[in-house]
Amino acid sequence: MDLSNLVQEFDVGGRLVTVMPTGNGNVNDTYLAIFRNTFEEYQVILQRINTKVFPDPALIMNNLRKVTAHVHQKLEKDCERADRVWQMPKIVKTRNGNDFFVDNANGFWRVITKIPSATAFDESQGVEHARECGTVLGYFHWLLSDISHEGFADPLPGFHITSGYLAAYDRVLEEVPEAKRRLSASMEARRMAAFVEKRREFATVLQKALVCGELQKRMMHGDPKVNNIMIDDFTGKGSAMIDLDTISPGLVHYDFGDAIRSICNPAGEEETNLSKVYLDLELCEAFCMGYLEQAEMFMSSADKNYLYDAVRLITFELGLRFFQDFLAGDIYFKTSFPEQNLHRARVQFTLCESIEVRESMLQKLLCG
Ligand SMILES: Nc1ncnc2c1ncn2[C@@H]1O[C@H](COP(=O)(O)OP(=O)(O)O)[C@@H](O)[C@H]1O
Ligand SMILES: [Mg+2]
Question: Closest Cα partner for 195 from 330, 340, 360, 323?
């Protein structure tokens, strides 16, 4: 079925002008579709949901319907107080009234409204942008802060349970002879194994805080990286959070840590010169300023006490996942050269060390 027939299964006004690929997402296939009539233009986003990552697309559409219904109402109520026009995509139904369309090759398609006149940057653009990213994530968390997480399905169970990744790491070293060989053949890998051991105890810090009731589960985004944050082309202010498939019950701390990990390391995840990898405090301060201003509306001081740990933990966790995958033989993360996953792990562990040496500065920033 071609794209133009497919997108016309959805209930968009006007006549179709064009459908073309858009954005730099690496999970779903994303297209921009433009419809017009005599007076108006309608731009929508058509996406094929990646069923390898999300085996049950009906489940994520169900989550999306509930979240957007809640948030749209809340945005309308908050519009007088807000300093900008915030947006959130809306599901466009099929002509038969469904949330998604299944083509004859079993592909799952959905259409959502486009956030108009806004850009999702692939990299951090400097301090003003970092602050806007913090504001968008903080406001997004506030929007979700009063939805009960009961009744929401988890699209990626175990995604941020660090002890689960440690168990997988132990298993691969125990059960896969090649993994043992890779470890003993590389001095670098052995140093990294020692790095992991020193942080084994720390790895459960957020899970423990959850179990003893210091932290509570809330709805979180699940993938708050820089190119899921839309910045208004005319005002430079953040206007929306997109890529809502990973929304799930969890700790907003994971989102906070992951956003800082990705936005405040100017070298990015693929840098091979480790001397360029560090946590940029200026970017970090700007992000936190934006986030905390919004977080005042829903965070307790116990929540804030764990923000530093979250930044450190999420960086350690991603490093561990790359390292485990290197040992396992590059099964999960695609590589384009040998030892790429070992390099990626080194970047995250280096960033983790950089976060650790800034602990007192970060704590002061986050807890006052
Ligand atoms: N509602 C939307 N409005 C405007 N642009 C969008 C919207 N949804 C997606 N995009 C664009 O498409 C890209 C990929 O979409 P995304 O939902 O993030 O998919 P992926 O899960 O593959 O990252 C985004 O980075 C953005 O550029
Ligand atoms: Mg995305």
Answer: 323
